[in-house]
Write a structure and sequence with these properties.
This protein is an alpha+beta fold. It is 46% helix and 17% strand. The longest helix is centred in the last third of the chain and has 24 residues, at 274-297.
């Protein structure tokens, strides 16, 4: 009979919301917590924390996913934006003054941060093209407010290593039986890299980016006021990438009006150069490669069931259609 030696290794655990409620109450100087519930999983785990008159959001990071320094950069950016009057979900300090805490769990150390709740409700931006104007304005205000943002904490950059090269390493093994498609994807990636390098020489706008302005990651109030949250992918990059993230959504749910409304909202608040506009379709392609690589990278926790030939049929069709319709010939 084989004997077990210690706990069996795990990659990801889901914490008891009841136990976490007590932990939060001890760590934070909050009014009595009346409820805590597991809200959703994903790249991180999200818990809703309910007090008598308000609610908070707790993000529990996955083990070994973000360093303390990378998290502090994100929190610095949120505090900076909040002080600039930009509606964002901001961090709540622990009773000891720190902005993050951690738990030792079977899979390793996991940090957590408590945030203010974003006012308003989730909105289906894919259903209403008109709200894209307000979304574009909000993204431009984030860019304006962070033009001079600096942090002493080191963060990864949203560069070609992050968006293309590392994701391709994850994708390679899943297309090894599809030589033609793998060759196409590598050629497309090379084309994107060359075009971004060419456009960079013409002065692409570089600065702080939200990193995932895909049309969601914001709540909206009845008076069309947007509050952004989930800056987990924020960092320094091409500002066009934030535009490309929304364009990616608009192409997933085809509507040129939605894209035009977003651009009209953005340019009403912040100038947009021709070179930054030219970079958008190439960065849409980079975003799709990044997402595919991220899906595979997290398959150990999310499951690999859907990452099959039909998955790549859809994703490669999207990229081929994008290249055919939106890349210069």
């Amino acid at each position: 009979m084989m004997m077990s030696h210690g706990p069996f290794p795990i990659s990801h655990s889901v914490l008891s919301a009841d136990a976490l409620r007590g932990q939060i109450q001890r760590i934070y100087d909050l009014e009595p917590i009346v409820d805590c519930c597991y809200w959703q999983g994903g790249l991180n785990d999200t818990y809703m924390v309910f007090c008598q008159d308000r609610r908070y959001v707790l993000r529990l990071y996955r083990a070994n996913r973000r360093t303390d320094t990378e998290i502090e950069y994100e929190l610095d950016a949120l505090v900076h934006l909040g002080k600039a009057g930009i509606p964002v979900s901001t961090p709540i300090r622990c009773a000891d003054g720190n902005r993050q805490a951690s738990l030792e769990l079977p899979e390793g150390r996991r940090q957590y941060v408590l945030f203010t709740n974003a006012e308003g409700k989730t909105y289906k931006y894919s259903d209403d093209i008109h709200i894209a104007h307000a979304y574009g304005q909000a993204v431009a205000r984030i860019h304006n407010a962070t033009d001079g943002f600096k942090s002493q904490h080191r963060r990864f950059d949203l560069d070609l290593d992050f968006l293309i090269r590392k994701p391709l390493v994850n994708i390679a093994g899943f297309l090894k039986h599809r030589d033609h498609d793998w060759d196409y994807l590598r050629r497309l990636a090379e084309r994107i890299e060359k075009q971004i390098a060419r456009l960079s020489l013409r002065g692409l706008d570089i600065g702080f980016c939200h990193g995932d302005t895909n049309g969601y990651n914001a709540h909206i109030t009845d008076d069309k006021r947007l509050t952004f949250f989930d800056f987990d992918f924020c960092g320094v990059g091409w500002r066009s990438f934030d535009l490309a993230s929304f364009r990616w959504l608009a192409l997933m749910n085809p509507s040129e009006d939605r894209w035009r409304n977003f651009l009209a909202g953005y340019t009403a608040v912040r100038p947009l150069s021709q070179v930054d506009l030219e970079a958008v379709p190439f960065l849409v392609g980079a975003r799709q490669i990044w997402i595919d690589g991220m899906q595979i990278e997290n398959g150990c926790d999310w499951g690999f069931n859907g990452i099959d030939d039909s998955y790549f049929d859809r994703k490669l069709k999207y990229l081929r259609d994008l290249e055919s319709a939106h890349f210069p010939q």
